[in-house]
Amino acid sequence: MTRIPGADGVGDVPPRIPSQSAAESGPHRTELEAGLSDELASVVSAARRRALRDGDRQIDTAHLLHSLLESDQGVRAVFDGAPQVARLLGYLVQRSIGYGLRWQSAVEDSGAVPVVVEAGWSPVAAGAMEGACARAGLRGEARARCLDLLAAIVADPQARAVEVLRRAGADARVLLPRIESALRNECADECADECAGEQADGSAGRSAGGYRTVRGAESSR
User: Fold this and answer.
1) Domain that holds residue 133
2) How far apart are CA 160 and CA 127, in angstroms?
3) Which of 8, 122, 139, 171 could make an S-S bridge to 108, C-beta 3.0–4.6 Å?
4) Which residues are CB-contacts of 44 (< 8 A; sequence separation ≥ 6)?
5) 58, 35, 74, 40: which is closest to 149 by C-alpha?
6) Residue 208: exposed, middle, or buried by beta-carbon count in 10 A (0-12, 13-18, 19+)?
7) Cα 174–182–87 angle (5° rounding)?
8) Which residues pair with 13 in a beta bridge?
9) What count of other Cβ atoms lies within 10 Å of the Cβ of residue 72?
10) Is it the case that residue 110 has pLDDT exceeding 80?
11) Do residues 97 and 90 lie in contact, with contact meaning Cβ atoms separated by under 8 Å?
């Protein structure tokens, strides 16, 4: 595929390609959001609003990364401190007035793209969403987390988000093991909290049962 050099240094962008429909460029919205945590569903909604506001025909991985960084503390924690996060956000904000203008006439894709008619998801973003849900499924969870999506995004070297990360000095190869570790810790903490809650409920139930038994014995005297 012929590629057009980027004047501002943010990678190369493929030539104009017809837009895609939501149905063909990614999973159906209802089916997609059923597999997301509440936090990740909010991130996706914010990315969708940003794409519409900026006049982009598709939600791509840069939109998703922008919303993840703005919305989730766990996502921000895997980067090298507040300065790097601020640098990334500053760079992402420039999209609507700089390098992102060239992206409006191209599709974020790593291969051949079918010709369709409506705006929806870029192929790479759709793949990242599906990858996030698959990661959650491997842990036995029904819903993907924000860190699942970040992991799926940085694992794809063709993602626009990975270009942005690289230009901002964030190495996707370094980020991925950090994300995996953060996910394990997040899940372990939640499991510990749930177990503690169940134990507390059980203790309260046993105490209430013992109280009723004592009261019943006193009444029968």
Assistant:
1) 22-220
2) 13
3) 122
4) 32, 33, 36, 59, 64, 67, 129
5) 40
6) exposed
7) 55
8) 4
9) 19
10) no
11) no
Instruction: Look up the pTM and report it.
Output: 0.73
Is residue 14 a part of any domain in this protein?
no
Token output for 43: 């991130």
Residue for token pair 């922008």? 66
Which percentage of the chain shows pLDDT scores above 90?
53
CA atoms of 180 and 196, how far apart (whole Å):
24
Structural domain contains residue 40: yes
Distances (CA, A) of 128 to 71, 149, 172, 176: 18, 6, 14, 14
Query: Tens digit of pLDDT for each residue in 164-218?
Result: 999 899 999 999 999 999 999 988 878 776 666 666 666 555 555 555 555 555 5
| Residues 6 or more apart in contact with residue 144 via CB below 8 angstroms | 35, 36, 37, 40, 129, 132, 133, 135, 136
Asked whether residue 17 is assigned to any structural domain, the reply reads: no
Alpha-carbon gap, residue 55 to 50, rounded angstroms: 8
CA torsion angle 73 140 41 162 (round to 10): 60
Q: Are the C-beta atoms of 113 and 107 separated by less than 8 Å? A: yes
Cβ count within 10 A of residue 114: 13
* Total domains present in the chain: 1
3-state secondary structure of 159: coil
**Reduced to 3 states, what is the DSSP secondary structure of residue 4?**
strand
The CATH number linked to 151 is 1.10.1780.10
